[in-house]
Fold this sequence. Notes:
243 residues, 3 domains, 5-stranded mixed beta sheet
Amino acid sequence: MDLTSKLLKNILNLENIVVENCEFGLGSDQERILTVDVQPYKRLQHLCPQCGKNCPGYDRGGRPARTWRALDWGDVLVYLRYAPPRIQCPEHGVVTASVPWAYPGSRFTMDFDWQTAILAAGVSTTLAARLMRIDWATVSRCAERVREKETQDAGNRFSGLRHIAVNERSFTQGKNVVTAVFDREKNRLVWAHEGRASKVLEVFFEGLTADERAAVEVVSGDNARVIDECIAKYAPQAKRNRR
């Protein structure tokens, strides 16, 4: 099971979990289903879904296992299965413990919610629902969970930035330009501002703390002089990576 566990954890993009078992089966509509039995590391099994504090257990016995829909493998539906305990949070009372692979209250993995939200931003909700094999209303709920989480984490999105990429994106035949900064390690957008980099990139660096600027190791982008000037001024320790 060790090799299978490593394979499943890497393909499903799962961290801080133990894979216990997996099984194939057929659903009610004869679709193929892979169910993976998992559990979080012990240090993550008693976290409050609202405040994130480690809390004492309340009960465990007899609680039914839940399933979370993960991203499909081709035409195979994938589910994670686990029976989370209830915990006694001093602030929020008796609640079901959170799990590291899903947002609180979601029956989908974070990757599933994210992919659905990204699709919904680029295509119609109807098409997104068809591609993800969910209903129309579920698309909106997935996107809303991602939006809420990103809003909550807005103050932490610059923490740990080491390799950033700067890119200008134009819309409406180049008349409207947005400068975007990406976290290359996590492959996500961390900052965007209307205007060309030559006018707004300093705004990004000014928004970082001294420690956050010092943590930047690599800055990727085209040969724009403004990037070189900002690195020299705000992050002289960073390596310049020209594309």
